[in-house]
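To whoever picks this up:

The nightly regression suite flagged ABC transporter ATP-binding protein as changed. Nothing in the input moved, so I suspect the structure step. Input below, exactly as stored in the fixture:
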Amino acid sequence: MTARHGHIEVQGLDIRFDVKGASVRAVDGVGFDVKPGEFVSLIGPSGCGKSTVLNAVAGFIEPSGGRVALDGRTIDGPGPDRGVVFQQYSLFPWMTVRKNVEFGLKMKGVGRSERETQARTLLGLAGLLAFENHYPDQLSGGMRQRVGIVRALATSPQVLLMDEPFGALDAQTRVVMQEILTNMWQRLRLSVLFVTHDIDEAVFLSDRILVMTARPGRIKAEVTVPLPRPRTAEMTSSASFQSMVRTIKGLIREESLAAMGGELKDGGLAGLSVEVGPQGVTGVV
Ligand SMILES: Nc1ncnc2c1ncn2[C@@H]1O[C@H](COP(=O)(O)OP(=O)(O)OP(=O)(O)O)[C@@H](O)[C@H]1O
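Regenerated output under the current build:
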């Protein structure tokens, strides 16, 4: 199945925030697109503006300049064509798993039996059907986040926007969740914009990775991931996987160092030299 909708276009995106009366430039002239059915990750040093870009595509933040569009229409607010998943599980604790998934459908006016069928189909795809009548606090973190993804998918969005969705999970659960997500994505073929700090995760999941500069965030590099699909855990130890991880790590390291240099300057430490010995930093002179 080929997706025909879900083309995200970001052109010349500038975003500034007012902080204590001063204008802080978070994102500066960012441009990229996500083709229908493509999986694209945004990665970069902390504070470079990844979440800000994603929030602009979600319609939660209004751009200070530039344009964000979905299928040719300028985005001017949140909408059911975009499902969003955050790191914090935002499930309603008083609703069962299935009722949580059905919520968006109910808001759209979908009838009871159709809601139930759609929710159960997606829960089955995520391996959660046996838990449909459980409450969120009866589930593990990984299961809760799977429900969060299913809930975001329930209204059949054209685009899934994910901000560090596995950031709160332990390493093993995270790997399993990545496999589940890549399997679900392959069946549904909707466009995904995925924000992460985890380079291995970005390479494992993505068709393309956009590496951002330190703040103000721009696109520093675009890395295409040529690994075949379906992706398997074994691929992560291949030479080409590891080489991509090294390349991206190098790009982010340059930016993290640049950002720290800036912070040192901002803190009035410019001009000082750092002495580095075999045990690490030994003094500031
Ligand atoms: N609502 C806001 N008001 C003021 N400044 C903000 C706001 N949201 C973000 N910022 C600033 O914009 C910059 C980019 O933040 P953003 O959260 O997008 O970065 P990020 O790359 O997602 O960071 P991290 O990887 O640490 O989550 C940061 O300097 C942040 O402090």
